[in-house]
Design a protein that fits this description.
Number of domains: 1
Mean pLDDT: 88
Largest sheet: none
CATH class: Mainly Alpha
Distance between the termini: 26 Å
Number of helices: 7
Radius of gyration: 17 Å
CATH architecture: Up-down Bundle
Helix content: over 70%
Order of helices and strands: HHHHHHH
Structural class: mainly alpha
Low-confidence stretches: none
CATH topology: Growth Hormone, Chain: A
Strand content: under 5%
Amino acid sequence: MKAKLWTKDYVILLVSSLFLYIGFQIFMPTLPAQIIKLGGTETQASLAVGLFSLVALFMRVIAGGLNDRFGAKIMILVGFFVLIAVTVNLYWSTFVSALLVLRLFHGVGWGITTTSIATGVSTLVPPNRTGEGIGFYGLTTALGMSLAPIIAIILMNQFSFDFFDWILDYTNGASFSIGNST
């Protein structure tokens, strides 16, 4: 008999992951355009992406140990709290330098949250259904990363950067709320 894969907590983490990746990937193609609009250079727009990636990579190493020490649920909530704090402040950022600093903290939240959700999923998946369980988790990240940029590019000509920041705030808040219910 197969062990139960589709538990409440597993589904909650999948939905939370999907919202996280959709919100993030809708935001990504719009940020460089906003930096240019604020008078930044192409180099600064590239830095916003590069700094975020480096910090997120570094935080993944740290987040693994924090997950072992405090547990995945606590770290998921901490990560979402950081992401929400950053994205709310993006709305008021009118200086390129402020956006670059916020992107550093955005990388911190992203590294913690993505590592912690993956840790949480791996602990919930029954050992005899590991491939299937992790596969569905991977599907949520792939869907978010695939569909959201297309949606963002279509909407970029219709709405302002503030609209995309609002979407990011909403999806992070929804993910936080959903993740807090596990």
